Task: inverse folding
């Protein structure tokens, strides 16, 4: 079906005039082929590759002359990036900033990543923070939080959140939460739950107080992911289990309700899946192993059909009218 | 009735989406939009992507435990024949459920129907493996196509389209690798197959198969490139002939040429014909070609390569954005529509650029490095 045949249909149904159809048709033939997102993706990928490469490059050539030059170049690059971002920045406001400068957000991202590489190197080579590793992590975190709010950048915000998490000793990146954290340490599970709660609360507040409302998703997603997975692990292995299970169910409820407010159904999915796992586990424990195995096929068949019915009618349950 | 979903609704949905684009560009008024909604009705149940994922997840659990429940009745005759019959019974049950949810609940690729379709197709195909034992692999591919093609035509499902394509390609590859001559001709045969399938698929004008068409075009272009890619041919040759290390292949210069020329041809054609699939596939395969060439001709450490590649990409992107400040030759840098997953960039940044935990005091510049591989996949 082409533009022409759609326009013909619209004319036949007397929705548009022939004149208007001609205007639309000429718009469609004359409009350019936009490579906007492709170019932005290349730029973003370039920054990712560059900062990944440079972060290692400086360690490779230690004790050579080229080495000093590389460090100096990175330092200058970082300064130039931040200087240019400052010069082109708009005044702060609570709502989303629309910076007309095409490159501003990418320059900031580049500046932040090179700063991270530079600071890490200085600590490694000269131990400027001595053994106060916490401080070494906290400085970029503070800088990133400041930059994220001042220049309105969600990417830098999520880098700041990972910094905050790593200060507590956690990995918060969505795909690594489970693999890179050592959750056999119960203390870490607790810190994950507390940090996740704080982040989720921040996200909730930034949404309800309308302070950088569009940051709310990043806070909620990263924090929620951490808290839900940590409480899930606590539910299986922690002591006392019931506390973690209760916490996990509370988080699930919070996220299912958040989905209703923030219109982002990823939260609905996160909440429902976690709650389902915890409840199934609690039921199995309650029934004892022998009985649970016998009833497993029936339980999973019917309970998942139940969840499906819930998801099919989620709009009605949650009162979303969209 | 070959099509499972209501074809009029599918067409109306497409018209509404196109019209919505015109409304957002103020080419149509909102009153006209309301008229269009009325004149082209559709009553599909289409949840958001995340609810669809949830539905898919739980429908898959329900399907597998339902099969587990049924298998309790087959425990006595634990032979392959009995299992074949069991698979067929499961398939019939899934198919009945699938037809029911499409007709009664008006689902349209909303997770549940996808899960039921995969369960049904999977059950039938696994019954082949159980009933016909110890045959040559290509026979199974051949038989599977008799299930996959009708399923694709009826349900127009994306994953079924992908699996069908790979099954057909595997059929050709498996037949050819049975002889020495076939092994030598394999790259050319796969290139011809990919080319023909692109030609066939890209001529479809059906809205019902629109999404399948897009994914098949992309796959055809990708396999056309991969079958001619020097790295794939060289390493594949070593693998097929059980060579301990890959060695230079015959017609090497032809494959060097394909590796370089195909991505450039894709990009140029894509820009000329305003075809996004050609263009994006061209960009991705160009990345593949650069990796191919550096594997054999460039001796740099990974960090040097990453830094160089990153610098190069940044420069190219910045120059192109500058150059396209005003549209040139029908190509523009205007953001066309709001990106669907704009927040993805923030999540990728957290994943790749984020910091690892700092308790042992390892220098954390190194923490970034793991992201290199992920970055390339992006």
Result:
């Amino acid at each position: 079906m082409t533009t022409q045949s759609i326009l013909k249909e619209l004319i036949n149904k007397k929705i548009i005039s022939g004149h208007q159809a001609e205007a639309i048709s000429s718009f469609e033939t004359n409009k350019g082929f936009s490579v906007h997102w492709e170019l932005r993706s290349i730029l973003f990928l370039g920054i990712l590759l560059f900062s990944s490469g440079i972060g290692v490059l400086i360690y490779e050539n230690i004790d050579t002359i080229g080495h000093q030059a590389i460090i100096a170049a990175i330092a200058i690059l970082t300064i130039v990036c931040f200087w240019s971002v400052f010069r082109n920045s708009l005044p702060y406001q609570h709502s989303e900033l629309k910076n007309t400068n095409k490159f501003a957000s990418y320059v900031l991202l580049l500046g932040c990543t090179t700063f991270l590489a530079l600071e890490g190197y200085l600590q490694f080579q000269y131990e400027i923070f001595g053994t106060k590793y916490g401080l070494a992590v906290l400085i970029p975190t503070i800088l990133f939080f400041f930059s994220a709010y001042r220049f309105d950048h969600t990417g830098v915000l999520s880098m700041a959140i990972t910094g905050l998490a790593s200060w507590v000793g956690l990995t918060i990146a969505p795909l690594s939460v489970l693999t890179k954290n050592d959750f056999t340490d119960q203390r870490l599970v607790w810190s994950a739950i507390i940090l996740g709660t704080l982040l989720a609360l921040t996200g909730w507040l930034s949404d309800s107080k309308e302070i950088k409302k569009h940051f709310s998703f990043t806070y909620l997603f990263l924090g929620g992911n951490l808290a839900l997975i940590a409480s899930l692990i606590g539910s299986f292995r922690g002591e006392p289990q019931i506390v973690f299970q209760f916490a996990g169910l509370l988080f699930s409820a919070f996220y299912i309700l958040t989905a209703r407010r923030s219109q982002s159904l990823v939260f609905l999915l996160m909440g429902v899946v976690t709650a389902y796992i915890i409840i199934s586990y609690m039921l199995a424990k309650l029934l004892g192993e022998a009985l649970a195995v016998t009833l497993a096929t029936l339980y999973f068949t019917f309970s998942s059909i139940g969840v499906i019915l819930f998801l099919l009618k989620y709009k009605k349950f949650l009162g979303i009218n969209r | 009735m070959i099509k499972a979903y209501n074809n009029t609704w599918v067409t109306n949905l497409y018209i509404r989406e196109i019209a919505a684009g015109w409304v957002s560009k103020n080419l149509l008024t909102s009153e006209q939009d309301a008229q269009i909604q009325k004149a082209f009705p559709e009553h599909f149940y289409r949840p958001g992507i995340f609810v669809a994922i949830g539905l898919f997840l739980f429908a898959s659990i329900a399907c597998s435990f339902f099969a587990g429940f049924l298998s309790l009745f087959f425990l006595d005759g634990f032979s392959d024949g009995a299992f074949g019959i069991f698979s067929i019974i499961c398939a019939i049950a899934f198919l009945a459920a699938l037809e029911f949810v499409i007709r009664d609940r008006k689902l349209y690729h909303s997770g549940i129907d996808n899960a039921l379709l995969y369960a049904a197709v999977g059950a039938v195909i696994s019954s082949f493996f159980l009933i016909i034992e110890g045959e040559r692999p290509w026979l199974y591919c051949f038989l599977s196509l008799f299930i996959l093609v009708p399923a694709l035509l009826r349900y127009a499902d994306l994953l079924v389209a992908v699996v069908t394509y790979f099954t057909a390609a595997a059929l050709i590859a498996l037949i050819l690798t049975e002889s020495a001559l076939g092994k030598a001709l394999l790259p050319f045969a796969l290139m011809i197959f990919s080319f023909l399938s692109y030609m066939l698929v890209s001529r479809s004008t059906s809205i019902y198969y629109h999404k399948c068409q897009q994914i098949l075009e992309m796959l055809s272009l990708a396999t056309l490139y991969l079958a001619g890619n020097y790295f794939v041919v060289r390493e594949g040759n070593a693998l097929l002939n059980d060579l301990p290390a890959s060695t230079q292949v015959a017609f090497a210069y032809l494959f060097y040429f394909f590796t370089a020329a195909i991505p450039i041809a894709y990009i140029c054609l894509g820009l000329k014909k305003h075809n996004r699939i050609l263009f994006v596939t061209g960009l991705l395969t160009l990345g593949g070609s650069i990796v191919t060439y550096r594997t054999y001709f460039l001796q740099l450490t990974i960090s040097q390569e990453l830094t160089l590649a990153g610098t190069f990409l940044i420069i190219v992107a910045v120059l192109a954005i500058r150059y396209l400040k005003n549209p040139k030759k029908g190509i523009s840098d205007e953001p066309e529509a709001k990106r669907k997953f704009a927040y993805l960039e923030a999540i990728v940044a957290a994943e790749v650029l984020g910091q690892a935990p700092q308790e042992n005091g390892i220098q954390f510049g190194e923490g970034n490095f793991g992201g290199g591989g992920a970055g390339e996949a992006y």
Confidence is low (pLDDT under 50) at residues 358-378 of chain B.
